[in-house]
Amino acid sequence: MGAYAAAYERSIADPTRFWGLAARDVRWLVPPDRVLDDGAPPFYRWFTGGELNTCDNALDRHVEEGRGDQPALIYDSPVTETVRTYTYGELTDLVARFAGALRAQGVDRGDRVVIYLPMVPEAVVAMLACARLGAVHSVVFGGFAARELAVRIDDARPKAVVSASCGVEAGRIVPYKPLLDQALELAKHKVDRCVIRQREQLHADLVRPRDVEWDEAVAAAAPAECVPVAATDPLYILYTSGTTGRPKGVVRDNGGHAVALRWSMENVFGVGPGDVFWAASDVGWVVGHSYIVYAPLLTGCTTVLYEGKPVGTPDAGAFWRVAAQHRVKALFTAPTAIRAVKKEDPEGALLAGHDLSALDTLFLAGERLDPDTYRWASRVLDRPVIDHWWQTETGWPIVANLRGLEPMAVKAGSPSVPVPGYDVRILAPDGSPAPPGADGDIAIRLPLPPGTLPTLWQDDERFVESYLTRFPGHYLTGDGGHIDEDGYVWVMGRTDDVINVAGHRLSTGTMEEVIASHPAVAECAVIGVQDSLKGQVPRGLVVLKSGVLAEPEELCPELVQMVRDQVGPVASLKEVTVVPGLPKTRSGKILRGVMRGIADGQEVTVPSTIEDPGVLDTLRPVLRKPT
Ligand code: COA
Ligand code: AMP
To answer: Which class is 502-624 in CATH?
Structure first.
C-alpha cells in the first residue's frame, strides 16, 4: 500500500491515534486529555483538556528554537513600491507590543476584535496579537461595503475594531475609514475602541476618544505575553456567504486548527520549516487566514504578503517577479488569477528573465480549475500544477493531491483524492451512497477532522440545520460531484445559491435583498452565470411593481450602484435586466438553477412543478445573452 492509502486508512479507522501523533508537532502548555471528544454528536471537539497559545506556536516558539533571524514575513507591495522583510524575532516583538496595545484598550481573553485592513503587515500583526491574548479576531475583507461590515459587527459584538486609513487598489486609493465610520453608525452594537493605522497615501480623520492611532497605541503599551487558552476556545470567526443574506460566522478553534494546519503544510503542500510559501490571496478570505498567516508560521516557513494583483501591478509578469525575487517554493492562488495572466500574456513571455528555480509547485483553489487553465499553467511553468478543493468551513483542503505525502497522477478537472481525515461520500437524494461515476451531493461523514468548524458563532442551531440535517451523520458541503473508479473526486459546482466570483464566495441572497429594497422592484433574482475570466459573475433579473413606469436604462444602473454601495465592489454585479416575470414552482420558489442552466447553455430539465412554463420561454433570449 502506498503512503497515501496507508495514511488515509489510518486516519479514518483510528482518528484518535492519527491526530494524536500529529499533535506532537504543536507546543502544548497543557497536553490534551482526549484527542477526540465524541460524547455529544453531532458536535465533536478535538484535543479537549489541552491548553496552548496559537501565537506562541506561530512565533515565540520558533524564536526559542533558533529561527529568530529567519525571515517570517515578506511584505511585497507593488502598489506602494515597498518590499520589507520581518524576521521571526522582529515579528514576535511587533505582535507582543500590539497585543499590549490592544490589552490597554480593554481587549481580553474571549473578547472579539474586528479587523478591517488591506494587505499590510499590520493585518498579520493584529491577527496574531489577538491570538496572543486569547481574543477572537474576525477579519472582514476590504472589498465589502459598510453595510456588510455592520452586519458582521452586530453578530461578533467586538470590543474593538482595527482598521486603516485606506487600501491601495491598482490605480485607486480606497478610503477605509469613512466605510468604517458608516458601518459603526449602521451597527446596533456599540464599539468602544478603534485602532487606526494611518497610511501615508491618505490620512484619516479620527473620532476621539473612540479612535486611536496605531502608532500612539503601540508607543504607550507594554508587550504582552502569550495567554494560555483551551484547545477548544475560539481563535477566530470568519464570516462566509450562505444562501440567505445573513452571513455565517464560521468558528475556528485553537488546538485542532494548529494541529491540522501544521500537518497540511508538509503533507499536502510539501513545504517544511525554512521554506518560502506564498499564498496570493487576501487575509480577508480563508485562504489568507490559513495559508498566508497561520499554516506557514506554525511550520516555521517564510510567508509572503502581497499587496498587488496578478495583472496591472505593473503587468502580468508580477507573480513571476515575486516568486523569483523571494525564492518562493510553493505558490498558491485562485484559477482566476492565472486566467487573468493568461489573457494578458498568452505565451508566458513575461516569465523570461525570472529565475524560478526555487519554485516546485503551483497550487490552485477557491473555484473550479478548468482544464484549459490547468494545461496552460502546466505548459508555461513546466512544473506540477495542483488543484485542491476546500471551503471556509473546513479551513484546509478536503480533496487534494498530497505532494508531501505521496504525489499522484493528476487528472485535469479533478482536485484528486480525499485528504486523510475526510471521509468523503457522494450521496443520492435519499441519502444512499451513489455508485462510482454518478453525481450526487458531496458530503463528509462525521466526525470532521481537526481544524474544521466546530459550530457557527453563537448559533449551534443554524450549524446543525445548515450542514448536519440534510444527511444525518454527515456534513453537507454544498457542492455536487462524483467519485470515479480510481477514487478521484470531481467537484462540479455548488448545489445552492452561493456563487463564486473571481475565487470570492458571494451570496446571491444578499444581492437580492439589496435590489428588492428598491421601491420600483416587485421581485428579483440574482443568478451566477459562467464568465471566462472570473469563473462566474452575478446577473440580476427584476420584475417591476405594476403601475411603475421606471425606465430600465435609468433603473438598472441605479440597482447596480446600490449593490456596489451596499454589498461592495467585490460583488462585481454589472448587469441587471428588467423582465416581465420570473419562473417559479407552484409553491412560489424561484427556479434559479433552471435559469442558470439556460444562461450557461446547458440542457435543463424544467420541473413539472413549474407554475407557468411560458414565463421561462420569454426569458430564454435574455438569459442566453452573453455577459
Ligand atoms: N478593497 C477594496 N476594493 C477591492 C478589494 C479590496 N481589498 N478587492 C477588490 N476590490 C474591488 C476591485 O478594485 C474591483 O473594483 P472595480 O469594480 O472598481 O474595478 C472590484 O472590487 C472587483 O474586484 P475583483 O473581482 O478582484 O476584480 P478586478 O477586475 O479588480 O481584478 C482579477 C480581476 C482577476 C485580477 C482579480 O479578481 C484577482 O486577482 N483574482 C484572484 C482571486 C483571488 O485571489 N481570490 C482569493 C481566493 S483564493
Ligand atoms: P470558500 O468558502 O470561499 O473557500 O469557497 C468554497 C467554495 O468554492 C466551495 O464550496 C466550492 O464551491 C468552491 N471551490 C473551492 N475550491 C474549489 C476547487 N478546487 N474546485 C471546485 N470548486 C472549488
So the answer is: alpha beta
